[in-house]
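Posting for a labmate who doesn't have an account.
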Amino acid sequence: MEAKKLLTIALTGLLAGGCLMVPALAEDADGQSGGNPATYTIPARVKRIEDYAFAGDTTLERVKIPDGVTEIGDYAFSGCTNLQEIELPDGLTKIGNHAFDGCTALVRLGDMNQLESIGEYAFSGCEALESIGDMPKLQTIGNYAFAELTVTDEDSGTSTTVSCKSLKTVGNLDSVTRIGSEAFSGCRELESIGALPNVTRIAFGAFQNCEKLKKVEGLEKLTVVNKNTFYGCKALASIGDLSGVTSIGNSAFRGCEALASIGELPNVMNIDNSAFLGCSALENIGDMPNATNIGNRAFLGCNSLVSIGDMSSVTNIGKYAFNGCNALASVGNLNSLMEIPGALFAGLRNLVSVGDLNSATNIGIRAFAGCSSLKSIGDLPNVISIGYGAFSALPTYDDDGNWIEDVYCVSLEKIGDMPKLETIDSQAFYKCSLLVSVGDLSSVKSIGSNAFSECKSLATIGDMPKLETIDSQAFYKCSLLVSVGDLSSVKSIGSNAFSECKSLATIGDMPKLETIDSQAFYKCSLLVSVGDLSSVTSIGGWAFWGCSSLASVGDLSNVTSIGEWAFRDCSALTSVGDLSSVTSIGASAFDGCSSLESVGDLSSVTSIGEWAFYGCSALTSVGDLRSVTEIGNYAFDACSNLTLRVLPNSYAENYAKSNKIPYTYIED
């Protein structure tokens, strides 16, 4: 005779004591079916299946629960790995925590018309479960109810992860109000669920990685889309009514590659980090008049996004929020935005316009870099700083990481007034080749290197009375720049700052200027005059080389050194004023200044470089050379009208004699 297995079934009956413990032989169990010891029919008098009633029974294959049962307790069938079918009663209202977790052979559940709640982990790890019927009265789905489950073998200690990987459909959920954390997480085959017209809360990760889920309807009572709610739902093409939602959490729709539209979001106040990251089919976002925050990378990689509605209340937008939204053509009113963070709109080649930014105080690093279609930026009345490369280049690469090209803001034509702007960082407007004008810059204190370099259409820059520093190549090759306003506070002009500004005619007084660096005004061929330079102490090499229209230079009484080629080929220059503090004149400093007639006091000069005054054919006097100890070759060659003033028996006298230059003695 075959061995008989003893089971203990914990049942709640109608007895006075409430709980009936029934020791039973499988073949003698009440309701035995066809002599099959793996099939059980629960007695009709039972109202509740107690906690752990069949937990861990690996022989159980089929169970029929009578209509009188209203509740299945916690862990009731947990770990019944061979349980394939269970006939649930019409009157069932509650399925407890872990009730069927790890029932890896369970295939389907029928309609559960009276069911009101499903507990935590209730069907977690039911990897064969294919469908769940209608549950029209269900109100609560617990945390991890259909999520992945880690199972550990007691003998080997080996852990495996099982999930509801076969679940495809879930029926009517009309009454559901709450869906717990990660309730359906990892149900990768889930294609459809019932509408959710009454749900008020969907906890974090509820449908995470439901890769085949196509649509979610309803949601009109939902107020929060939590973190990771639909993360990785690659097939999700439409989402229900989000008009009541006030917050969209971190990565809520991240990776929803098929999601094409989000309706109006009239009550949304917060869109968290990465909320729509990688939603590559998303084309438009409705008005968000109450939104105040859009997090980092919120719409990063939404490369089909064409338009965004009203964002007039947004005060903060995080880094890279719209990075990679290559189809985005316009951004509406951003009047409340306090800061434009780094790379916010970087690389958006189709972005044409951005509305007023009346509250913004800072434009971050590369904020608009590579926006090659951007034509205008509205007034920026409160901007204090513009960061590195804000409207400059963005490098592009192929799939293998090889550089293709740098993309510039080549369509930007104008920028409104910026009366509070203090800092323009390096390359801020580098190669904005159509930029014609820049508004009020009356508070600017520093302009970084290459800030307006190669802005070839830039014609005027307004007054900058507080400007102290013009860095290297700041206006390099601004070939149409005619004038620069008030520079009365400037202390330093960097190398190539105005180099090859071939239309620049005048530079105003710069009484506080101390340093003119190398090539500062190189080849400014129309520059006629430079104002007060009374505080300048050094003029760098090539500083005015090729300024062929330069006729006069202001007071240079504090200059101590004039660099090589500093005024070379300034063919219209007729005179240079007081140079009484100069100690050295570099090579070719005045080479080719054919109209230069006189040079002021040089009594402190100790060194004159080679070719320093070569070809100054109109030069008659270079002042007092009493301190000179070194004069380079050809320093005064081709100066046919020059007479030097020297001390008897001095180095200067000997030089004059050796080079057959006329001289007279200095009379003290």
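Reply:
Got it, the structure tokens are right above this. Residues 1-35 have pLDDT under 50 and may be disordered.
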